[in-house]
């Protein structure tokens, strides 16, 4: 049992079954994890193992490949793909099952050669983190790197990102960056070692979107469970709504901007995109004059609190007493909170904390004028965010309090700055 190592092909016999696969790293010393031929992983308790036979010793993988000789095409746009982590453009070591970042341009082209027909590709690893470890400090780093790439001639930016917090980052970049080019975030729900991986088609679609004559921050992900198209979503109107489906990302209280066919490279606009540039051709005269400005001032002491039956209002006091400047409440229904925490909310607003109300229903709008609960909360100083996802309201409040005083932030919280608020007429048309 001790003679086998990561990367070895082994056969494990238990009381009733025989498993064959390649040994992968395991976080638990009491479990041996193998990758089977069907692409799935299985963990087997050592106590249940009767015997192990080593069928083939593994070799330490090497990735020293000769550089590709790729000529830059003048008729294609220059796209910078920045990696922050995740699996959307990683390579798999099939000896160990480990996933390694693949973010030189050569890596990307080797993995997805179709990109050569879409754009001139530049790849760069900015971060290498699990997306659940994303922080506002990392948002600032990403914004700075985007600025550098645009100043160096990028016609579009693709950000490869883990899916768990991608909608937070998309929202943050929407507020922080004003640029003349498309900035497209993309992820993968299924890792590239699985037959059902969505990584390749998502990335191809994201690069297609990044060559379009549009401005702003967007998210590209699978549009349905199959492999037929991807959607282009506005960065401040999209949310991950499923833990594992490939079409986990949905536009909320609006429809996607466009539908992308990664096979034909066609893009069908479903509504008018934000800040369209005139014409599809590359304007050589304006390439060196692309506008890019970033504002990385964020007030990080902003909290998001979810309302639930029996919530202890002292959690609000905790944030107030620890110097927090803003609190976003994810309320029930049209924007409600239990009366048992009214005194805590009053404590916050009396201390000058900006308190805003969103809804945990995800779809639909906040309206705090319908029921007495909402009207009482407004009397306490709570501001209803009429049409913002809780995550977007959190990021927007960070941005506002990082750049304005509290009174000005109150004025701007319900002003549409980057497409985060859907017009009533458009909302009524689609819902």
TrEMBL record:
**Main enzyme class:** ligase
The UniProt entry annotates the active site at 87, 163-164, 240
Q: Which residues are in the GatD N-terminal domain?
A: 5-55
Domain L-asparaginase N-terminal: from-to ranges: 78-272
Enumerate the catalysed reactions.
L-glutamyl-tRNA(Gln) + L-glutamine + ATP + H2O = L-glutaminyl-tRNA(Gln) + L-glutamate + ADP + phosphate + H(+)
Protein's UniProt keywords contain Heme: no
Domain Asparaginase/glutaminase C-terminal intervals: 301-408
Domain of life where this protein originates: Archaea
GO-annotated molecular function: asparaginase activity; ATP binding; glutaminyl-tRNA synthase (glutamine-hydrolyzing) activity; transferase activity
Biological process according to GO: amino acid metabolic process; regulation of translational fidelity; translation
- Keywords of the record: ATP-binding, Hydrolase, Ligase, Nucleotide-binding, Protein biosynthesis
Alphabetized Pfam families for the sequence: Asparaginase, Asparaginase_C, GatD_N
**EC assignment:** 6.3.5.-
State the protein's purpose.
Allows the formation of correctly charged Gln-tRNA(Gln) through the transamidation of misacylated Glu-tRNA(Gln) in organisms which lack glutaminyl-tRNA synthetase. The reaction takes place in the presence of glutamine and ATP through an activated gamma-phospho-Glu-tRNA(Gln). The GatDE system is specific for glutamate and does not act on aspartate.
Q: Which NCBIfam families match?
A: asnASE_I, gatD_arch, PRK04183.1
This protein's assembly is summarised as:
Heterodimer of GatD and GatE.
What family does the database annotate?
A: Belongs to the asparaginase 1 family. GatD subfamily.
Q: What is this protein called?
A: Glutamyl-tRNA(Gln) amidotransferase subunit D
Q: Which organism is it from?
A: Methanothermococcus okinawensis (strain DSM 14208 / JCM 11175 / IH1)
Q: Which gene encodes it?
A: gatD
């Amino acid at each position: 049992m001790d003679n086998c190592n990561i990367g070895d092909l082994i056969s494990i016999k238990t009381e009733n079954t025989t498993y064959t696969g390649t040994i992968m790293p395991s976080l638990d010393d009491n479990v041996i994890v193998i990758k089977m031929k069907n692409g799935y992983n299985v963990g087997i308790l050592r106590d249940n193992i009767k015997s192990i036979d080593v069928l083939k010793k593994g070799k330490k993988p090497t990735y020293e490949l000769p550089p590709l000789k790729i000529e830059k095409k003048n008729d294609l746009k220059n796209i910078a793909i920045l990696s922050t982590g995740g699996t959307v453009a990683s390579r798999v070591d099939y000896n160990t099952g480990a996933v390694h970042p693949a973010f030189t341009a050569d890596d990307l082209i080797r993995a997805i050669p179709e990109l050569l027909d879409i754009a001139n590709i530049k790849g760069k690893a900015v971060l290498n983190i699990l997306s659940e470890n994303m922080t506002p400090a990392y948002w600032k780093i990403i914004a700075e790197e985007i600025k550098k790439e645009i100043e160096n001639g990028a016609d579009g930016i693709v950000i490869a990102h883990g899916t768990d917090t991608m909608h937070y980052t998309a929202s943050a970049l929407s507020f922080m960056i004003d640029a003349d080019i498309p900035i497209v975030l993309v992820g993968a729900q299924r890792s590239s070692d699985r037959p059902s991986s969505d990584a390749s088609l998502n990335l191809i679609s994201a690069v297609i979107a990044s060559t379009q004559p549009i401005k702003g921050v967007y998210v590209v992900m699978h549009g349905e469970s199959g492999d037929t198209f991807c959607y282009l979503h506005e960065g401040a109107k999209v949310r991950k709504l499923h833990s594992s489906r490939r079409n986990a990302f949905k536009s909320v209280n609006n429809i996607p901007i466009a539908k992308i066919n990664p096979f034909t490279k066609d893009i069908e606009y479903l509504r008018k995109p934000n800040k369209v540039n005139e014409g599809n051709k590359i304007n050589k005269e304006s390439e060196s004059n692309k506008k890019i400005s970033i504002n990385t001032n964020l007030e990080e002491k902003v909290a998001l609190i979810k309302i639930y039956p029996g919530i202890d209002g002292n959690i609000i006091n905790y944030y107030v007493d620890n110097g927090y400047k803003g609190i976003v409440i994810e309320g029930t229904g049209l924007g409600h909170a239990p009366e048992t925490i009214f005194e805590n909310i009053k404590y916050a607003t009396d201390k000058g904390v900006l308190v805003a109300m969103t809804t945990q229903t995800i779809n639909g709008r906040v309206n705090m004028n319908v029921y007495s609960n909402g009207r009482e909360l407004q009397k306490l100083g709570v501001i209803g965010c009429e049409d913002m996802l809780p995550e977007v309201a959190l990021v927007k409040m960070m941005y506002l309090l990082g750049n304005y005083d509290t009174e000005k932030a109150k004025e701007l919280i319900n002003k549409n700055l980057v497409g985060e608020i859907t017009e009533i007429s458009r909302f009524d048309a689609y819902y």
